[in-house]
# Entry
Amino acid sequence: MPYKRGQKWIAQVRKEGQRLEKVFLSKTKAKDWEAKMRRKPVEEWNVKTDTVFLGDWAQAYLDVAKVRFSTKTYKEKASMFKRFLGLMDAAMPVSELKPAHVLDYIIKQKEERSGYGANKDRKNLVAAWNWGMKYMDPVLPAPNPCLVERMPEIRQPRYVPAEEDFWKIYSVAEGQDKVMLLAFLHLAARRGEIFRLTWADVDFGASRIRLWTRKRQDGTFEYDWLPMTKDLRRSLRWWWEYRPIKDHTHVFLCLNEHPGQKENFGHPFVSNQKFMRRICKAAGVKNFGFHAIRHLTASILYHHGEPLAHIQAILRHRSPTTTERYLKSIGLERVREALESLSNKSGKADVIEFDKVQETGESEIQKGKAV
# Structure
């Protein structure tokens, strides 16, 4: 009989002193396989089959993803496969998966979640199948059946807090929190980059900071050096001297005992979202997160007229096109400037008062006046 291990069922067969096991996602499939193998001669048990099932594909890809990608990315891919195999049969041979099946799934995700969520699942399915076509044995068949049409998305511009709102939360912050907020602003850093920051990454002599990022296709950590502003250098110097835990390599540590964080006291941050909610509430401003501070830095640089190349270097994008898309996503595209070029350069235009037009029954245009 099959036995359960975690969320999987292990089928097992014993015959003529031989033992064989296979993993399934359902008890029914495991029992069917056991019955089938009992009818087979033992000498055929180890004959290799070229049949790969959807469940085999998902498990093989997730095993690699767990090692290769960040925990957040792995969980995203695992959640996608849980939804996908909830609608598809995990025991279906991969050769039977058709674009129509994938499209039905993507449409369902669009209806139940959003176009953005559906397209994210599509992206992960495409990546998983491409991996299978390259690395599985036997390889998955081409062409990739997951390359179906994308769903329409409704995306709102990313929220950019007002600069004065940042300084309001900064004014009510204390100690490490104050230093960390300034680091987010002056480095345009992602949350994980600040949480991973160690004192070895802080070069006081050359006034620079090394940020490590995993925002690459293969998941490899890479670093960039950024100059340290005078204010940030002064704040980090102060924190270096007065930090309460001297023997830890990380710059920022969990030092409060709020619910949910007690067990992480004295260790590097994993998540600190509640801090931003608390401090925004204390400062009386609209709630925003750490990543919104990165948006704010880009916004300030843009409005100060900094060249795109400088903003790209600070945001650490590989391509200027990425930076342009990023600025557009926070509502800073140059459309306004293009429209302003259409303005009357000779001075202010005359404005017709609607009530007067109604009263006279004759507009200024009808009288031959320009407006």
